[in-house]
Amino acid sequence: MPQVAVGHVELDYTSVNLIESKSFKLYLNSFNQTRFNNWDEVRQTLERDLSTCAQGKISVALYRLDELEGQPIGHFNGTCIDDQDITIDNYEFTTDYLENATCGEKVVEETLVSHLLKSNCLITHQPDWGSIQIQYRGRQIDREKLLRYLVSFRHHNEFHEQCVERIFNDLLRFCQPEKLSVYATLYPSWRSGH
């Protein structure tokens, strides 16, 4: 299952090299679809690789987004669907997951959130990471199918604005809610240079 975290990285001032931001972003992007046993293994890998590159001591702390409530990165209200106990192996875009994605006839009103939104810029193929909030009224949307659909954007090349519009239109088409709002925040500080 894809995961997301915010990292706090400290570089010792006596290090021989600095790490350029675009190179750092590309290095972080190389972690996509990489499997780790736990967060500590991710932290140790980051510290080892970055310390080697900088030729100095690097320390890394990783924080899940729910640990950052009240911080300036932003907080979405709603039920986060990211921690489901499922295995996802398909990262190619498909709307197939939205086929029959509503449950029963009961009308619900809920807000669902995922921090696993990732696509690639159509021009540069650089990653766009973000969070998405889906607020709707209608037949309940199957959260597993919705998460699989959102994760299927991870190899998709399209401007992030178009991805959000596509998500809105696909949910409208396949789930047919009475009301629908889709809001996404992409992390521009990670998108330096494009």
TrEMBL record:
It comes from the Bacteria. One of its GO terms (molecular function) is preQ1 synthase activity. It is an enzyme of class 1 (oxidoreductase). Residues 2-62 form the NADPH-dependent 7-cyano-7-deazaguanine reductase N-terminal domain. Keywords: Oxidoreductase. One of its GO terms (biological process) is tRNA queuosine(34) biosynthetic process. Its EC number is 1.7.1.-, 1.7.1.13. InterPro entries: GTP-CH-I_C/QueF (IPR043133), NADPH_dep_7-cyano-7-deazaG_red (IPR050084), QueF (IPR029500), QueF_N (IPR029139). PANTHER family: NADPH-DEPENDENT 7-CYANO-7-DEAZAGUANINE REDUCTASE. This is NADPH-dependent 7-cyano-7-deazaguanine reductase. It comes from Escherichia coli.
